[in-house]
Amino acid sequence: MNKDKTILRALAGERQETPPIWMMRQAGRYLPEYRATRAEAGDFLSLCYNSELAAEVTLQPIRRYGFDAAILFADILLLPQALGVDLWFETGEGPRMSTTTTADELAGLRATADIHETLNPIYETVRILSRELPRETTLIGFAGAPWTVATYMIAGRGTKDQGPAHALKAENRAVFEGILDRLTEATIEYLSKQIEAGAEVVKLFDSWAGSLKGDDFVKYALNPAAKITQALKHRHPGIPVIAFPREAGEGYVGFAKATGADCIAIDNSVSAEWVAQNVQPDSCVQGNLASSHMVTGGDDLIIETKRIVNALKGGPHIFNLGHGITPDANPDNVQIMINTIREA
Ligand code: CP3
Fold first, then answer.
1. Can you give the pTM of this predicted structure?
2. Which residue has the CA at smallest separation from atom 7 of ligand 1?
3. What is the pLDDT of residues 183-204, one digit of tens each?
4. Which atom, in ligand 1's list, is nearest to the CA of 205?
């Protein structure tokens, strides 16, 4: 392991005096340089598939702030697109997709072996980044977790309560489970190619894990994460995995042990003190400053940042937000957060 890579050291379980830092959505609309490159690309999806420009926006927050990790610029919905689903973004509203809710539609998805035709530009972005990043910066690849991606495929759009996906689960469990199985299989191949191209860590985003309860949480969030993690570690021994079962609450407890993930990313619905007691004893943790502080700044930003660093200083910790930074964030607040952590 390159000892300069503080993120890899944290993922290996090392407690560090100053936690390494990166931010979800660190390449995004709050940055004027991102908006300029996105305008040059035309639209968001064209930016994702333009390897040179996607690498450029990935590097922008590294140059501006010196984050310890860069996350590949892409989207979790590119994988279903590679499986043959129609995908587009409605300005100001978010993603739209053709729906997959019947046995015929499930059977009509493209074979897993054929996803790379669509996704090759993403692997090229990873290759460019692994050449161009500073030697101390860790490159993170990612995919959506099967449940979260399925919620978009089933509804054809983002939903507040994932109602259509829960309805399909109740009405046609075979098709519902078939979609998750197809996604689990394809996610392993997708992440495997990212690792071969140079991703040093992979993260699994399960943004809607919090709406799965009890047995459903185990079957549709935990088990797929375990299957993906174990398959990747079998093929790529030592590859660190970050799992983000967002808003899992007590489901965070034991998630690392049960899946084999090296780090659990934590949203801001639980306190850092609770995380230190209940999650950090088993694994590295990442989180969990509320992204609203990047908008509002002031004393609260500094107090909360210090509180999180302090609460989690007894074990391996990667500082991050609880969710992605929003377009209305003030770029100066990001610098204040970083200074607060590094000067603490
Ligand atoms: O963290 C990063 O910077 C890496 C790149 C990344 C993006 N999306 C870029 C993006 C990652 C890891 C994602 C994950 C993602 N995408 C998730 C899971 C994490 C989460 O935020 O909950 C989800 C649910 C999606 C699907 C998605 N993509 C939605 C719902 C939207 C629209 C919401 C919005 O912010 O407008 C996107 C678009 C998107 N993905 C943007 C970015 C930077 C904004 C696109 C733009 O420039 O307009």
1. 0.97
2. 75
3. 999 999 999 999 999 999 999 9
4. 18
Q: Is 96 in the pocket of ligand 1 (CB under 6 A)?
A: no
Residue minimizing CA distance to atom 11 of ligand 1: 75
Atom 36, ligand 1: which residue's CA is nearest?
A: 94
E-assigned strand segments in the chain: 69-71, 87-90, 94-97, 138-144, 201-206, 241-245, 263-265, 284-289, 317-321
For the chain, list the domains and their CATH numbers: 72-265 (3.20.20.210)
Token pair for 142: 């990612």
**Phi/psi at 102 (5° precision):** -120, 165
Q: What is the pLDDT of residues 57-93, one digit of tens each?
A: 999 999 999 999 999 999 999 999 999 999 999 988 9
334: which residues sit within 8 A by CB, 6+ positions away? 23, 65, 294, 325
pLDDT(1) > 80: no
> Mean pLDDT throughout 154-161?
97
Residues acting as catalytic residues:
25, 29, 38, 75, 152
